[in-house]
Amino acid sequence: MLLFVGRKLAQTIFILLMVSIVSFTLLKLAPGDPVQMALGSEYSQEAYASLTHEMGLDQSLVVQYGHWLWGFITGDWGRSYVGRTPIFQYAFVEALPVTLTLAASALFLAILIGVPLGVLSAARQDTILDAGTAALSLTGTAFPSFYLGILLIWIFGVHFGLFPTMGFVAPWQDFLDGVYHMTLPALTLSTYFMAMIVRLVRANLIEALQQPYVAAARARGESERRVIWLHGMRNVLMPLVTVLGLQLGALLQGAVLTETVFSLPGVGQMITNAVLNREYLVVQAGVMMTGCLFIFVNLLVDLAYPWLDPRLKPR
Amino acid sequence: MSLQMSSSAVQATSRPLVELEDFSLWRQNRSVLDGLSFTLPKGQNLALVGESGAGKSTIGLALMGLLQSQGVKMAGRARFDGQDLVSLNARAWNGLRGRRLGMIFQDAGAALDPCFTIGHHLAFPLRRLLGLSSRQATERALALLESVGINDAKARLKAYPHELSGGMQQRVMIGIALACEPDLLIADEPTSALDVTIQAQIVRLIQDRVRMQGASCIFVLHDLALASQACERIVVLYAGQVMEAGLAEVVLGRSRHPYTQALKSCVIELDTAALEPPPGAAPSLDRMPSGCRFAPRCPRASERCTAEKPPLQGTEAHQIACWHPG
Amino acid sequence: MSETLLVDKIARRPAWWAGLGSYIRHRPFFILALLVTLAFLAIALLGTAVTPFDPTFQDMEAPMSPPSSTHWLGTDSYGQDLLSRAMAGARYAFLTGICSVLLGALGGLAVGLMAGLAGGRTEWFLMRIVDAILALPSLVMAIAFIAILGQGVDKVILAVGLALIGPFARTVRADVLQVRALPFVEAAGLMGIGKLAIVRRHILPNVFFPLVVQATIRISEAILVSSSLSFIGIGIVPPTPDWGLMIAEGRGFVSFAPWMSGVPGAALAILLIALAIVGDGIREQMDPKQRAGH
């Protein structure tokens, strides 16, 4: 078991290093001279040289990478040119929680609605209800989330005036108001996942219900509900968690767009503004955070496998 | 209902446990079983024999009520302890399964849910159906596992199915199926996924346990020798029709149906040529002959055989459906 | 299963339209989606020849007018005809979608071939880089490239194309490994046929077809990502009639001119749904094991 965890951890750290190399390369490829940008339009030759030295830009790329990586690990992510604030504070402490809240609420909503719909669809296979769910989930996976967000704003925000259409309130400060502000964004972002979960649960559950162990459970006298929810869903958990882990990228990507639609001050807004302001360090911080999050969650999924399917338990 | 059944012991002993009368079954409008009739007295074992595709397993699944949701139509009569099974609703089936009907499957490895421990599998019948406390249930589970010949039962309770050998898995299945002491056990080819060396062991184990609990068992087998060892009665099926039925020693010793004889010669002489279908006339469920379904392959077939279905005739001890019995 | 039946039917009946009829009856949604996609493609190809107005013509008399007899689907805040702009937008959607997929597929083919053929350390190294890139969602990857490249149609194509190299490389490599293990390819290697010849004669043809299928399916993803870039304001720049851009422009006016985002939004949504159905159909056709679920 320890060996298994150790190997997974080693793999993870390696991919993290790769992501950091990709991010570092991106920064180096960025046009413009960072020293010049930091100094503004008027500067002396000496000031230029001393800042170059101070920023370590006169050293070899490998040394620069090492410095940068160490800085990243220790929370020294540099300063933003615009606000002169530490990027760590801005990106990690302020923006990331917003995005995580959005992503988590969307995922929660998607599972809450998607799983029962998928089960219903599988249990009533080839009925009108099943066909309707199929059509809805196909539409849901293909529909552009940012336009859906605008539609929701129009219907629920403007027409019915039920929900606020912009801004973020931290649920850990004011839970009810936070949920209230998060409703439309979470609904927008969850649609794709809801649709995907419905398709996934339906297909896998139908397959699971054809397995001999399901017939055997029925033969033991287990009720249909127990058969579906216990034996069926327990065996669907593994493919479901795997795909959800792999689709985390899509979730973060959707969050970027949803934040723009609802003016939420998250990572997506941060990166977008940084691109417009040519703040490469901030873009890079965003890229690193997204990559690390994806890799971290998939590490968790990997570690959960032996529990999800006892056959995968390492000896 | 159950009161009525247990109150009159005299009636109960005279009434057969399973009674099929002209029982037919269609799956997606294809005839799978055609006019089956046989009875199983209480306390006896019965073997359904025939090649694969003869509908043996279908009978087992139908008697467990496991086919109802799959676009299956039934006709005729099927009774279990006097209760009509054809018209039974889902709820009543749930009451029967597990408590009064138990089933053992072909491949125990696939019939045990890979995500749950053996103990969890046993907990359902013991705790939910029998209502035992968790302590009592554990005790009973250990006793059950020991009774089906599993050593180190305590450790096995915590094991997952894939951690056991095929023979062990089947023993566990037997334990689970018998946990509530059902009246009828259906063993659907319980040995076909096992090593030849332990096949006889498993059949004997089922036989012993069933006798011990005063229950009956319907074995689905394709091995005639095994069938005659374990069962008092044998029903020989071909393509969903009963060819020959009766007491084991009679059906096997004085078989008169050409199909049974061919099956026997298979066993004895390993001569499969007798069973090889004539070219281009393999019996398919789509185009069943209107008369005797064995006719296209039968050496004694006449025109009458293909045109007219032979009725099942004879005594309780020996029945046969053939126009030209040998 | 229905596929084999279908083949039987076509083979048995001499008249081709009878087969077609049953095909349409079997998969009405696929046919409908295919027709919708082709219609969008036709509009994209014909361009300004079929649009009622010049997509950048600003009718100062009628800014933000609701759908009317002159402007069938209304106008935006500059008085530009939305129907014309939505139709012209189809061209940019297909342009960015198809070009970036081509770029990604070619890049993926190169990387995947290299990784699959090199084996050993080179393969390992290349695939770890692909792993790292795959850890970043394609939109984030594209944003990062945009940050470096700048904005505009060509930059969007380049950024999205680069972002798609990772996913393509992974599937190409898997195919290469599969083909390489085939007995006749191994035999060719043992017979001393040159590596390049093997690649050209055996590996490329076997990798090419699945790649084309992949590419067709990924066009919708590319269209979505590029319109997303424009929507968040860092992709294609105004006044180019791009759907993502138009939706973003209409976003602020949703309370009193919902048609401004509604027209391009509907166009994008309809095309993406149609492409998804077509993609599902193609995938099913290619992989009969993946039966008609939904």
TrEMBL record, chain A:
Main location as per UniProt: membrane
Family note: Belongs to the binding-protein-dependent transport system permease family.
The UniProt record lists the keyword Cell membrane: yes
PROSITE patterns listed in its UniProt record: ABC_TM1
Recorded superkingdom: Bacteria
Ranges in coiled-coil conformation: none
ABC transmembrane type-1 domain ranges (all copies): 96-305
Cited Pfam families: BPD_transp_1 (PF00528), BPD_transp_1_N (PF19300)
Keyword Transferase: no
Keywords: Cell membrane, Membrane, Transmembrane, Transmembrane helix, Transport
Membrane-traversing stretches: 12-30, 102-123, 135-162, 182-201, 236-256, 280-305
Subcellular location field: Cell membrane
Organism: Arboricoccus pini
Membrane topology: Multi-pass membrane protein
One GO CC term on file: plasma membrane
GO biological process entries: transmembrane transport
The protein, known as: Peptide/nickel transport system permease protein
Automatic annotation (TrEMBL), chain B:
Keyword Cell membrane: yes
Compartments where located: Cell inner membrane
Biological processes, Gene Ontology terms: peptide transport; transmembrane transport
GO molecular function (one): ATP hydrolysis activity
Membrane topology of the entry: Peripheral membrane protein
Keywords: ATP-binding, Cell membrane, Membrane, Nucleotide-binding, Transport
Domain ABC transporter: residue ranges: 18-264
InterPro entries, per the entry: AAA+_ATPase, ABC_Ni/Peptide_Import, ABC_transporter-like_ATP-bd, ABC_transporter-like_CS, Oligopep_ABC_C, P-loop_NTPase
Single GO cellular component term: plasma membrane
Family in the record: Belongs to the ABC transporter superfamily.
Protein name: Peptide/nickel transport system ATP-binding protein
Source organism per UniProt: Arboricoccus pini
Taxonomic placement: Bacteria, Pseudomonadati, Pseudomonadota, Alphaproteobacteria, Geminicoccales
UniProtKB/TrEMBL annotation, chain C:
Gene3D superfamilies assigned to the protein according to its UniProt record, in alphabetical order: MetI-like
Gene Ontology, cellular component aspect: plasma membrane
ABC transmembrane type-1 domain sequence ranges: 90-279
Keyword Signal: no
Keyword list, A-Z: Cell membrane, Membrane, Transmembrane, Transmembrane helix, Transport
SUPFAM superfamilies associated with the record: MetI-like
Transmembrane stretches, start-end: 29-50, 92-117, 129-150, 156-172, 207-236, 256-279
Compartment annotation: Cell membrane
Entries under InterPro entries matching the protein: BP-dependent_transpt_permease (IPR050366), MetI-like (IPR000515), MetI-like_sf (IPR035906)
Protein name per UniProt: Peptide/nickel transport system permease protein
Species: Arboricoccus pini
